[in-house]
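User: I'll paste a sequence; please echo it back and then give the predicted structure.

Assistant: Echoing your sequence first, then the prediction.
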Amino acid sequence: MKTIFLSIIAAALVSFFVTPAFGQEQGKEKNRREMLKELKEKYDKDKDGKLSPEERKAALEELRRRFIEKWDTDKDGKLSDQEKQAAREKIRERFKARREAIRKRFLEKWDADKDGKLSPEERQAAREEIKKRILEKWDTDKDGKLSDIEKEALRKHREELRNRFRERLHRLLRLLR
């Protein structure tokens, strides 16, 4: 649980605010896993592969410092309401851009007639492909359908993903208060 908690916080902060601060790899930003690994290596002082509460606190303080440094335009060491608002707007823009990128990829894959929207037939094809993928991953007894137990496992997985996302978002927004 502690590892998940740290991963959520670190991924959120790193992905939104300090990506360039952890270096670039041949002109491209490092992916999140590499950045999280680098972050963990930097703050795991006892090298046990885990961040203790003290190590986690130090890592979060560093990320918080970098976040403030990035958004503190008047360089007074704290974020004014205007600076917080600018950060919020930028975060919203990034979320919107990510949603749009997902939508675009989905349309590229499923919009056969390239009219910019999914017809009922295209939607059905997408549903069938998604169902196939779900069955491949979650149909553990391979009977071609999800049992109640398999459905519950999928529901719990989705709920966990939603909760991780919400927690990540709330942590980001708390930094801006």
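The beta strands are 24-25, 28-29. The mean pLDDT is 79.
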